[in-house]
């Protein structure tokens, strides 16, 4: 499974790595969505029981090939609005660089664009507005906070090595052709002690211990944003931590839960703020 969303009528929308999109339960459980031609469903969001928004990460790569899309500077993602009653869809946004998060706000649709490190909103008139830009990491899913604002998951850090390689097409092409993807000089979901991983030795370790400030390829980060998408505080797993690859976060039942895909765990976050709110 590559994307999930729950509808108000108990329906569950599920995206799969083979590119298919299914609706389980609810009034539209038997709706066939294969005709839409989605190949890379990476984010889903219901707008009532009859409308589903779907983000197609790439028209070239599958969801599991996200490193390939980043390293080829992919920007073929799109956001669809699907009428579940008829099974027909309308493409609302194109040319997106891996739209990994979707949500609804009073201003319209919220879209997280990972490879451009930003959060966008699209209003009912179709106007797209950047709301949070130049993030220090690659953002993933976004979810509303109970008292207003947002929770934003970021699954891997940006660093100087990756930013440099993204500007060197010759090196990238050779790396992708000759090196296994898990050892590319690219973002990762989990830490590794292998000598095959880039940035080993003195860049990351001192006397055999990983530096807390090391330029890691993986990281764990959750941001708390206010209603205007301004960061208020954050939760971290450091470079030498194990709760890396945070791909989603949600507040439910008074708790804030986050998935650390690199650590293979679901986390319950302590979100105590100044002033005592927990």
Describe the overall structure.
By secondary structure, the protein is mostly beta strands. It has two domains: 1-134, 6 Propeller (Neuraminidase); 137-278, no CATH class. It has three helices and 20 strands. The protein has helices spanning 66-71, 160-165, 169-178, and strands at residues 3-6, 12-15, 21-24, 41-46, 51-56, 77-83, 88-96, 99-105, 108-113, 118-122, 128-132, 137-144, 150-157, 205-206, 209-210, 220-225, 231-237, 246-252, 255-260, 265-268. Strands 4-5-6-7 form a four-stranded antiparallel β-sheet, with no helix packed on it. Strands 8-9-10-11 form a four-stranded antiparallel β-sheet, with no helix packed on it. It has a four-stranded antiparallel β-sheet with strand order 12-13-16-17, with no helix packed on it. The longest helix has 10 residues, at 169-178. Residues 274-278 have low confidence and may be disordered.
* H-E string: EEEEEHEEEEEEEEHHEEEEEEE
How many domains in all?
2
Shape summary: globular
Strand order of the largest sheet: 4-5-6-7
User: Could you tell me the radius of gyration in angstroms?
Assistant: 19 Å
Sheet having the most strands: 4 strands, antiparallel
- Uncertain ranges: 274-278
Give helix % range: under 10%
Total strands: the figure is: 20
Q: Please, what is the average pLDDT? A: 90
Structural class determined from secondary elements: mainly beta
Quickly count the helices: 3
Proportion of β residues? 35-45%
Organism: Seohaeicola nanhaiensis
Protein name: Strictosidine synthase
């Amino acid at each position: 499974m590559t994307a999930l969303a729950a509808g108000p009528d108990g329906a569950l929308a599920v995206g799969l790595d083979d590119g298919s999109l299914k609706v389980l339960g609810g009034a539209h459980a038997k709706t066939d969505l294969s005709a839409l031609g989605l190949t890379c469903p990476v984010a889903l969001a219901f707008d009532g029981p009859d409308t589903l928004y779907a983000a197609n990460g790439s028209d070239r790569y599958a969801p599991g090939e996200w490193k390939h899309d980043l390293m080829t500077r992919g920007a073929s993602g799109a956001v669809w609005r699907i009428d579940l009653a008829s099974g027909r869809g309308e493409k609302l946004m194109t040319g997106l660089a891996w739209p990994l998060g979707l949500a609804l706000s009073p201003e319209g649709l919220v879209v997280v664009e990972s490879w451009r490190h930003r959060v966008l909103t699209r209003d009912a008139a179709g106007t797209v507005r950047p709301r949070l830009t130049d993030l220090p990491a690659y953002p993933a899913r976004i979810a509303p906070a109970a008292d207003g604002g947002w929770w934003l998951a970021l699954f891997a850090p940006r660093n100087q090595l990756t930013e440099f390689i993204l500007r060197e097409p010759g090196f990238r092409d050779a790396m992708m052709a000759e090196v296994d993807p898990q050892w590319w000089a690219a973002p990762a979901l989990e830490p590794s002690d292998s000598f095959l991983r880039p940035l080993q030795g003195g860049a990351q370790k001192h006397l055999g211990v990983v530096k807390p400030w090391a330029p890691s390829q993986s990281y764990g980060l959750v941001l708390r944003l206010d209603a205007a998408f301004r960061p208020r505080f954050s939760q971290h797993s450091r470079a030498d931590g194990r709760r890396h690859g945070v791909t989603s976060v949600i507040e439910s039942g008074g708790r804030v839960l986050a998935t650390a895909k690199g650590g293979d765990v679901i986390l319950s976050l302590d979100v105590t703020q100044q002033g005592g709110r927990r």
